[in-house]
Amino acid sequence: GLLRVGMIVRGPGVLQGQCIDAPVSTLDLASTFFDYADASAQLTQHGRSLKPMLDGKPETRDFAYSEWELSSGRVGVALSLRTVRTKTDKMTLDLKSGAGELYDLEDDPHEMENRFDDPAYSARRKELTEMIYARPDDAGPVSAAVGTA
Question: pTM of the predicted model, to two decimals?
Answer without folding.
Answer: 0.74
